[in-house]
Amino acid sequence: MKLRKKTLLIIGATLALLIIFLYATSAVILTKGFARVEEQDTQKNVQRVTEAISDDISALNGVAGDWAAWDETYSFIDDGDLDYVKRNIPDTTFVDIRLDVMVFVNSSGGIVFERGFDAKNGKETVVPESLHRYLSRDNLILQHQDNESVKGIVLLPEGPMLIVSSPITDNKRIAPVRGSMIWGRYLNDEELQRLAGITHLSLSMRRFDDAQMPSDFQAARSSLSQKTPILVQPLSEATIAGYAILDDVYGNPALLLKVDMPRDIYMQGKATMHYFILSLLAIGLVFGAVTMLLLEKSVLSRLAWLSNNVGRIGKSGNLSERVSMTGEDELSSLANDINGMLGSLEKSQEKLYKSEIKNRVILNAIPDLILQLRKDGTVINYKATKDDNPLIPPGEFSGKKIHDIVPSELSSHIAFYLDRVFGTGSMELFDFQSQRNGKKYDYEARFVANGEDEVLVIFRDITERRQAEEAKKNEMLLKEIHHRIKNNLQVISSLLYLQSKGIKDKDVLEMFKESQNRVKSMALAHEKLYRSKDMERVDTGEYIKDLANYLFQSYSIDSNIIRLNIKAENILLGIDAAIPCGFIINELITNSLKHAFPDGRKGELCIDFHSENNKFILAVSDNGIGIPEDLDIRNTETLGLRLVTTLVEQIRGNIELDRSNGTKFKIIFKELNHNEGK
Q1: What residue spans define the domains of the chain?
Q2: Which residue among 163, 469, 637, 661 is least crowded, i.e. fewest CB within 10 A of its CB?
Q3: What percent of the chain has pLDDT over 70?
Q4: Phi, psi dihedral angles at 129 (to 5 degrees)
């Protein structure tokens, strides 16, 4: 396609896009402007309606306030004289003020007089029973702070009602309030029609809690808030609506008001846009024709001459030639730039050569085996960093087939992934193992297509990474084992507890409880291992504290009677020593709690665990009544003390008994090797 035709098309397309852009931009701006004016107008109209309702309530409040602050009303609320009713509350009063309900309530909450009236049918009605629940003594409607009236809207099953509650006092408004005068006017369809006539707007209203309201009311209800008190929503091309919430006398949403209006502003905006687009089209056509003539004279003819000169230099390949162009505009600058580009080509080629050398150095620094293969498996080039690489033999093998270089099993995998990478066009990856000197190595092979007939294969040694992953798996497995052992021991402890529920014999019950505590001591050790970063060692300090506190809770020991004093260093012990220590502590604490403090005797139980001279010293003592002098702890029939002596022997320790001040057991032992604890 000729340049002139392209230019014409470009100018035409540019003008079309410009016109579209200007139209779209202007449409957005104007439409938004008209929409903003329309929205503001709708908001003002909605506000006019809400103000009209507020004015109705205020007007009703003004008249009610005059009635309530009247000596006759003040006397009537006290004596209930029906002459007041005959003189002042005829049917015409309800008609003139447009009242539906009038109620007089004294300061005790009692109704002195009430009356309802249907002005439409001209007959007296019963005051709705639903209104009475608002007239309790402590209700907001009967509370007059600083002798102020309470006014607003209440929701009744019969319909929403405008309500005013004024304090009853004397003419001077200084006498004590004797009660409240409540006036009510239904906010029904007739009242809405009256308001529509005043505001010259179409009005409709729904209860805020109406589950059957139309969809547009539901959408407005979910969008209105304190930040958005008025919602404006177009309903169609011809109609727009404004919505607002009317709160009840308690400040809660009561009614949803809708104001419908014709979209006169919007229609005027659309007409303005039609005239605007016609003007843009006319201006665009004139501008396009003038622009094309100017371009032909000042640009296109000169550009064609420059193109011919560049083509001539390109065919000759003589980079010493230059192009010339008269003038001092962009085309002459272009000619100078072309001349500069021709002079820079040789320098660019030299820089490219240096860059290739640099890239090769970087490539050689990568500690991976890289093969460049053809689709048929022929080695084009390779890069190896180790002479003893187990994947390839030493020597030169460019031009050879891959199956002649690597083991047959690996060769078949490489052939498979060569076909696959050409089929998918994406990188392929597989892991494999190779042996050298009887040792296994893990490798990762990446296949990346390099053109239509070449593939780069990168082999990376991932042995250390695999070993790290395996170590992590073993750690997780060990943690899971400790967790499951702890859970199983917890189940055994729970079964012992449940089984003991049906036992009446105290001795047998005590045996079950002791067995349960022994199981708990093992479960607690495994729980410490499960939660520890070191899967093979237990923080003995925390273990001793948790075990001792558990035993005190198990025997329901009052800390004000028997004090527990623990001094335990945070020493890490292997599981082979930690669990026997837990058993020993369990038996010695249990023995002290059962026998050392009879008949509610007060005392103290102490546990001390520390290291000294490469040995561990565990001391459990109490200041109770002490162990009988004739009791030999190494030759006794009690299971607990026999367990203690057996476990001390198991951890290759010594046990000492001090009877000088109560009872003190002292065990001295060393850390066990893994095989010694078995």
Answers
A1: 59-187, 366-461, 536-678
A2: 637
A3: 83
A4: -65, -30
